[in-house]
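Fold this sequence, please.
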Amino acid sequence: MSERIDQVGGFEWGMACCCFVMGTILRSAFIIYTTGNESWMVGIFGAIAFMPMAAGYLSLLRRYPGMNLFEIVSAVLGGAVGTVVNILFVLFYIAVACLNMMEIGSFITGYLIRGSNFLLVTVVTGAAVAYALRKGMSALMRTIPLVAIIGIALVIFSSIQSIPESNFRNLMPWFVHTPGEFVHGTLIAIAIPYGEMLTMFALVPHVRSGTSLKKPMFLSIAFTMIIMVVVHVREAITLGALLTYTVLPSFDVYRMIDTASSFVRTESINAMILVALTYIKVTILIYAAAQGLAHIGRLKSAKPLSIITCMFIAVYAEAFHNTSYNNIEWSVNVTPLIWIAFEYAIPAALLLCAWFRVRAVRKAVTL
């Protein structure tokens, strides 16, 4: 696939990573249902556990500079095996995009515009994603830092606002959950918020040649870990015993803030940012899926496929539409096991195969 691509710097790529992860962190009920008021610890454990795999991702990028994930898979595995693995990754991205599109539809119809049509919301969102992709991914990446900065500022601002409604005793006692529950929560953290950063491989061709992604990636992990800790601590001290009874604790915290003393209606602004962050995540996922389809089909451009993929996901997301508690149960018990296969097992196998390839070439040259 050869397509002229406008390129951006490592800063924009790193901020895109932050937005991608924040779009999940601010919907944190799936971790809370496992470790409750100690979920902030799981956020730290998950970030630390993800770092070795992030180093593995970067190692693949150094071996195959300027390539996206699908091109790396074809270069390492080649032939039929590479095509099969690429098809699996495309299906994975479509599934994750459908789930996040469903989250947008559920949030808008359940919280913002009650009684609105779910399918209409997802179709309009799909059209907005298609429009953004028609304009080009690089154009979106240049606007992402602004959204990320606003999102971070609002998390900090709303956390300060929630202090009068907070009781820090709700954080105690510590280590009441079993080691198995901490392990389970950590697996969820490394699979859903952090492991999904594998999708950012799709944006590598948009980064200027020669730009090191090591610093942007690890800084984005550190920033999002801090945000996750702040969000979980804020939810625990504000909601207390209600923490495990809410399906969207981050948004419920906003609704508890005394808006009469606020300069703006915090709830509405944070709702818009939450939708914007999830929208950016869906856009990147759909772009990655379209990129994979174009690579498999050996097409010169992924733009026509982006529009088709948007509409398919917008319509198919309704098949994932379920009750919020069923969605959380799926995220807690099923999703981590499936996601880890794509985010850790396959990339680790790719890294191992790439290492053997390099070693075999060096051995042949030596002989």
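The chain has 14 helices and no strands. The radius of gyration is 21 Å.
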